[in-house]
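cron nightly-structures :: item 1 of 1
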Amino acid sequence: MGARGIVLSLVAAALIVVYATARRSHEQVHIVEASVGSAKFAVSSSFLRPTSRQDGPTPALEAALLFPGFTAAGDFDDVTARTDLDRRLAETVYLVIRQPDPRLDPADRTARLYERFLEENSWSHPGGLIARAFTDDSPFRGDELYFTAPEGREFAARCRRPDPAAATPNTCQAGMRVGAVDVEIRFSAALLGEWERLRDGALRFVAAARR
C-alpha cells in the first residue's frame, strides 16, 4: 500500500469512529451561543468542530460545511464504511471566524503582503482568476496565489503547489473581513473554480449565525 493509501485508510478509520460517536450523540445537537470579540453568534452544534461547541467568548469559532449546499458537516454523520472519502474530503469546507487582524485587512493581503514574494510570470485559471507562484526564497515557498484582478480584493486564495505524488489532498485558504470578524475559508483546490460560490456561501453562513 502506498503512502496515499495508508493516509486514506487512517482517515477512513478516524471518520468511522467519529461517525459512530455522532450517531450516539445525535440527540444532543443544540444551539451554541458564542461570541468572538464584539460579535455574537448562535449556530447549531452540528455545524461546529468539537472545540467550538461551548457557549460564551471564544478566540475562534470553527465550522465544517459540505459544498455546494453548505450543510452541516461538523459531526461527520453522513460518513459510513461505504463513503467515498476522496469526494467527502474534497467537498468539506472549513470556516474559522476570528477577531479582525488590526494590522491587515484580508482584502489587502495580495497588494501589501504577497506581491513582493510572487514570481513575475502569471497564468490564467479556469475560474477566471490570475495565478502566480511564490518564489523559492519566500516564506510561502511551495505555494501559489490565485486572485481576482487587479489586486485580489474580491478574492485571493493561497494554495499548495499541485503535487500528484502527495499523500493528502491539495488545499487552499482564503480570507475576508465580514463586519467585526475575519473569516478564513479552507477548502480543496478542486473547488478553486467555484470561488464565488465558496465566498457567497461563507457570507450567508456568517450572516445567518450572527445575533
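cron nightly-structures :: done
The longest helix spans residues 3-24.
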